[in-house]
Amino acid sequence: MWRLKAVVISFTVLWTTCVGLDMKFPPGFKFGAATSAYQIEGAWNVSDKGINIWDTMLHKNPSLVSDGTIGDVACNSYHLWREDIHIAHELGLHFYRFSISWTRILPTGFPNKVSKDGINYYNKLVNGLISKGIEPIVTLQHFDLPQSIQNLGGWTNPLIADWFADYARVVFSNYADRVKSWITINEPLMVCDAGYNVGLLAPKVTEPWLGSFLCNKHVLMAHAKAWRIYDENYKGKYHGKVSIANNPIWLEAKSEEDEELAELARQFGVGRYSDPIYSKDGGWPPAIEKLMSDYSKKQGFPYSRLPTFTEEEKKIIQGTYDYYSLNHYTSRVVRPAREGEEPGPWYVSGSKELNAILEAHPRWRVSDFKYIVIYPEGIRRQINWITKRYNNVSILITENGLGTKSSDMHDTARINYIHDYLEQTLLAIKEDGANVIGYTVWSLMDNFEWMFGHTMKFGLYNVDFTDPLRKRTPRASAHFFKNIIKHHSLDVPRPSHDTREIKYNNANSISSLYILIGLFSLGNLVSYCF
Ligand SMILES: *[C@@H]1O[C@H](CO)[C@@H](O)[C@H](O)[C@H]1NC(C)=O
Ligand SMILES: *[C@@H]1O[C@H](CO)[C@@H](O)[C@H](O)[C@H]1NC(C)=O
């Protein structure tokens, strides 16, 4: 019997080795690249554009950014949008994800005044993309909140849900006839936990108690109201899709005993921003609700720091999705903090509440920035977690990419990163049955990378920030990505590491590994059969 089993296993291995290792993407799988308004547009003071929280923060204190740069000009895409369409077309992108600047459309932040120039700018961009056969995917809010709204408490004020809905209504009414894919809010975990808790990003509110949790509830309400406006007024006619972009770091248990803690940490980081929308019962993840209630009591609060939802609010939020928008870059292992050890670090809020330590696995590759640890299997596990928890929802990867210090045109590290993360995505689709419908590189081009300024490069295209024309030049990764799109397959030549020339070799590390395994299995097969 065991012999028969061995033969079957060997045959299976042989089959996947010689025949089944198919690096093709499913038909209909789409490729794109992304940017955001503040990071590329510049033109912070043209026409009647209003001021946002990044304008304010960095004009007051440019030294907050690593290299003292600010986004006043950035890639100057407000004037050079034709260049952006040109390079998106050169790559053969199926779609281009960009964001709309709220204060370019509504200078006061409110719908009392709509900017003609603002509306026209995005009309030109959307029409230009469509004329080249590139689908626009539009984010309504990517970190650049109107200062007027921040003055009223920003995301900690519950009224923001209606103000955001007002803004969404104006945007939809102008572009829904041509834009079919929407993202309401980018990375609420960063907006809330980095903006209203640890004070890492604008508006840099440092408030460890309520800020991030109020924000958490209000981004969900804002998203839900916008989703419902689209659903009621436009979906029947234009059949578009609306989602919210979450950015989970994959969290892996350090050892088997830590699995429960790791799962709580996942629910703290991703579940708080997803369960109320995607889960069967709506509302917060029950384990997190209980944890926060107990923890708040211990801290002397007469109520939970995690605000409650009324039944009506729960219903407003639940089910407001058409797909899951996933931004993913990196992973961590989780273990309990030891006696006397500070829990943390900040980037999963909840490390304090969970008394957890998040750290890089010693075997994972560290990138130029210690924040990004490279663990390609993490994306497969994250996809599987979402697939399982949210009933096989279709997933669009809306950001993935590597930040480097070097602006080298031969960006082998970026090529390997994109290759390896795409390979794991393929495995999630083909081996695990996940419903991943597309993949987006962050970013189309180098841009203003928030607190890292221009020191962190993410671009498939290099941008020369000393050139008034901000010349965009393709890196080796651009050629690589273009080839993947063209062949709809990951089985394309990778530019080799060790030469200044872009030479191509068929460096498919996995195939040589599989050939070895194949030979080994063949050996087995022969010895078992004869
Ligand atoms: C806009 O800001 C730039 C600096 O980024 C400045 O040189 C220019 O004078 C400003 N223009 C207006 C109209 O205020
Ligand atoms: C998810 O749905 C797709 C079709 O949409 C299906 O092919 C796949 O088997 C499903 N996967 C799981 C894990 O249920």
UniProtKB/TrEMBL annotation:
Catalytic residue list: 399 (nucleophile)
Keyword hit for Phosphoprotein: no
Gene Ontology MF term list: beta-glucosidase activity
Alphabetic keyword roster: Glycoprotein, Glycosidase, Hydrolase, Signal
Source superkingdom: Eukaryota
Record SUPFAM superfamilies: (Trans)glycosidases
Name of this chain's protein: beta-glucosidase
Source organism per UniProt: Euphydryas editha
